[in-house]
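Think of the structure tokens as a kind of shorthand, similar to the way a musician reads notation: each symbol stands for something richer, in this case the local conformation of the backbone. In the example below we present two proteins back to back. Begin with the first one, reading the sequence and then the tokens, and try to describe in your own words what changes along the chain.
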Amino acid sequence: MAQTILVVEDEDTLRETLAYQLEQDGYNVVTAGNGGMALTEFRRARPDLVLLDLMLPELSGMEVARILRRESDVPILMLTARGSEIDKVVGLEVGADDYVTKPFSLRELQARIRAVLRRREGAGSSTVEQAGPISVGRAQVDLSGHRLLRDGAVRPIKPKAFELLAFLLRNPGQVFSREQLLADVWGYDYGGETRTVDVHVHWLRAEIEPDPKHPAVLETVRGVGYVLRTS
């Protein structure tokens, strides 16, 4: 069954072009031209991925992402004409799984969509055989159940952050560069843009570290990258 993508873009020509191309790629496509319509179409169609423009009338892309993330863990790929680091980081912090900066090539966008959907499917099907949740710092991770727990209670966690944690759990004690993590967890080369890894590590440390300001579980290896210590 074909996957459904919701394209949220207020520029008519770009929205129609994206919808046409994605339909040619075999996806079902629904569209919205503003933030309010985006929420209506999302709740109606329940898409597998949302392609979301940052600058929208009525509700901004940031606000739409916040609302979507409260209602669902659907993958969100954000489109932004802005090039500053802060806009990219804020987009990730409100729940976007990835972003593409305009102008972009259709080939690049198609690759990013495939990567997000592929990683999403992999997160739902890949498991490591365990007798129960794995203790990591002050948290417990249920890989097969795709859950993070603390003091017996399930903690909210962004899908990509969980995928990063699961990957590190499958490779304890191994140091990974940011570029390696982007390739192995996100599924493609970010072309040198590695800030997203740091953002997701920050989220994870807030959940698993006894003292997030002095991480001893998910450690930084200066000049190299990150390593997860499980003992």
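Once you have a description of the first chain, move to the second and do the same.
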Amino acid sequence: MKAKPAYKRIVLKLSGEVLEGRQGHVIDPEEVRSIASQIQEIHEMDVQVALVIGGGNIFRGHAAAEQGMDRSTADYMGMLATVINSLALQDALEKLGVHTRVLTAIEMRQLAEPYIRRRAIRHLEKGRVVILAGGTGNPYFTTDTTAALRAIEINADVILKATKVDGIFTADPKIDPKAKKYDKVRYIQILKKRLKVMDATAISLCMDNKLPIIVFNLLQRGNIKKVITGQKIGTHVAA
């Protein structure tokens, strides 16, 4: 029996680092194809998929600013990095036969469409995967905040935050072996305890708009589908 999706429209948030390969490539075509095939799986379940991807594998604006670069300039460079990643993912999805559109917050018409809320929703309704690139188009905002903002704008059911660990922990599990995983956590707990999952602006946006977040491990193949079908993996964030 075919599993039914628990969500109709989602925003999948990916970090730029998930595109890196084990050989140290900035963008590893094999990793990109793997992620694209997992997205294809849920797309074939008639789930409307919007993607927001970071640019940390190419350039980190915040890190550059800490080393003396003008923060606004550094952040705009980071936004351009997200466009590069988005085009790579679009190429992989299109090669799998998944119709995909890249919409950018900063206009670059030769490469992608400008982000317009109604246009993004229309693409989703027509069964296209939409990749939302270029952050919010403003410096000082992360791609986590972009994911929260866009999810609210397009009336997504949930944000799926893909990470390299199994969910949200009391501490970094790579550093502290005694760190315990939360199965469920409230937005306010994340803010009060400063849990490192998404920045405070993104969490506050989700809290104010009652938008649930699921944090899960992308490195375990098939986890995206498990989350979509309502299986209890990762950490669920709600009120």
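Compare your description with these statements about the second chain. The helical segments are 29-43, 61-66, 71-95, 117-125, 143-153, 187-193, 200-208, 223-228.
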